[in-house]
Specification:
By secondary structure, the chain is α+β, with helices and mostly antiparallel strands. The chain contains 6 helices and 4 strands. The chain has one domain: NADH Oxidase. It is 38% helix and 16% strand. It has a 4-stranded antiparallel beta sheet with strand order 1-2-4-3.
Length: 177
């Protein structure tokens, strides 16, 4: 089987990460894979915020937990040390689709490098707040319109075994020949 198809078929969402930080080289390779995702009309509207600062990562976790309605102390990023946040300009009608492709590429790339990943929602709610809009401005993220958070890609070394694939449901493919 081809390496790319194998990576797609064997990647799983990971819900338990080690504290150990992946190498900068791996983080950069994952981000680069995201930047090569297809985008509608080649707009390349999604941007990626790479959070490796523990203080900011932990604040994002607390805020995400609050938005999700979980008990205080729950970590919706499952201890992953790297959070790659994908956002796209609101003016682009395909922003969610384009950002989703970025997230998919990054998760597959992480797996191909021996790292785990998981897509975590609530980036939209986070980046609707003035506090996170200010963070974008402070980071130099500017555009012709406001940005919408598409999702978080939590990355890190897997703590434990990679989960097995669930059987694929039947009757999901229909050929029109």
């Amino acid at each position: 089987m081809n390496d790319i198809i194998n990576a797609i078929k064997t990647r799983r969402s990971i819900r338990k990460f080690m504290d150990e930080m992946p190498s900068q080289e791996s983080i950069d390779a994952i981000i680069e894979a995201g930047l090569y995702a297809a985008s509608a009309m080649g707009t390349q509207s999604p941007v990626i915020i790479a959070v490796t600062n523990k203080e900011l990562r932990d604040k994002l976790s607390r805020d995400n937990c609050k938005i999700g309605g979980w008990q205080e102390g729950f970590d919706p990023f499952y201890n992953a040390p790297v959070i790659l946040i994908v956002l796209a300009e609101k003016k682009y009608p395909n922003r969610v689709y384009d950002g989703s492709l970025v997230l998919g590429n990054m998760m597959t790339a992480a797996h191909s490098l021996g790292l785990g990943s998981i897509w975590i929602h609530r980036a939209r709610e986070e980046f609707e707040s003035d506090e996170y809009k200010t963070l974008l401005k402070d980071l130099g993220v500017t555009g012709e319109s406001e940005y919408e958070g598409i999702g978080h890609c939590a990355i890190g070394f897997i703590d434990g075994e990679t989960p097995k694939a669930a059987p694929r449901r039947e009757n999901r493919v229909f050929y029109a020949r």
